[in-house]
Structure formats: structure tokens, C-alpha cells
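W.,

You were right to be curious about this one. When I first looked at the sequence I had no strong expectations either way, so I just let the prediction run and decided to look at it fresh. Below is the sequence, 168 residues in total, followed by the output.
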Amino acid sequence: MIKVGDTLPSATLMEFSEVEGNGCSIGPNPVDVAKATAGKTIALFALPGAFTPTCSAKHVPGYVEHFNALQASGVDEIWCVSVNDAFVMGAWAREQKTNGKVRMLADGSADFTKATGLTLDLTARGMGLRSNRYSMLIKNGKVASLNIEAAGKFEVSDAATMLSQAKA
């Protein structure tokens, strides 16, 4: 399992874009994790699934709400990663009004999630292999802090915790 001090695994996430710009075409676009984190501070949070109750009611809205404070604390970008496809993440981004605040990144085949060792097997609940709920502060591609939730909990991966770590 990934830990503080480790470099993020080499992976490609997908991001849905509805508007062409910044070198991105409309539709799903690849995001090379190593290139996208180089020289930046990223507040990354991951969750079991788009449109799920805790994720939609608390996790994503908290990061949208704390966007300005996180940026003021030196965070360049906020990433939400989930084992969903880019189209689902794009629809969820619209519903959550994340545009310009939180990058909604799809890990459709769970390659990034498996490489971090932070998988959650929800096969018995009909959801297959998913991501555990966690957050990490990333500085120049390395994990500076890591907050992994216990099963069924939402206590340490929230935006307020991330904000306190970004300020430290």
C-alpha cells in the first residue's frame, strides 16, 4: 500500500471535458498522473463511487466549498478520483457544480487504485472493485500526507482535514 514519502504510481486517469480549451478536446481526455502532478501541490481525494450517498452529500461538496481556502494554502489543484468511467464522472461533475474547482478524474479499470493498494471490494454489494475512501496531499508527485478511512466511515478524508494539512 502507498505511504507517505512514496511517489504516486505511474497511471493514466481520464477526464471528461464538455468545453474545448487549454489543449483539451471535448470528450474524455487522458491525464498522465506523473506529468500532471510534476511541480504542483495536489489535494487528491478518492471515493467508492460517483452519485453514491456520502460521496455526493459530503465528500465532493466539502472540497468545492473549501476550494478558495485550499488554494490560499498552496494547493494548485483538487482531484476527485473514482473507479467510474469518464462519462459518469463528467455527469457527476455537472451535478456537483465542480467546474473550475475540482477535477473529476475517472479510474475506469481501477489501474491507479490497484497500484496504490487502496482498493475496496464491493462485489458482494454489486459494485465490483472500487476505491477505498481516502485523501492525500501530493507535492511534486510524492505523497506528503495520507488519510485512509475505516470501512463505512467519513472522518479523516474530508476537506477540512486536508486544509489543516495543507496549511501545516
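Here's what jumped out at me. The domain at 12-167 is CATH 3.40.30.10 (Glutaredoxin). And, maybe more interesting for your project: The radius of gyration is 14 Å.

Coffee later to discuss?

I.
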